[in-house]
User: Fold this.
Amino acid sequence: MKRITWQPVKVKPHNGGARIITGPDEALNFLDHDWDGAEGEFYHEAKRNCRRALQKAINPERARQAFVGAFLDATLPIA
Assistant:
């Protein structure tokens, strides 16, 4: 099965060094296990959209935008 990817997003969580997220599978894993921000509506939307992108129900770019939005909403740095 071909891996779904997007333009890399460099994130800098408070609890560790910078990481590069290259697709919805990595983003969902990050949100489930390494997220250290607020778990508000943007966080939940990012998780939903990543799942939907993995199911090929939406364009991966939409999931990427939601993932970046969760960081911005939680005031966590992205590069």
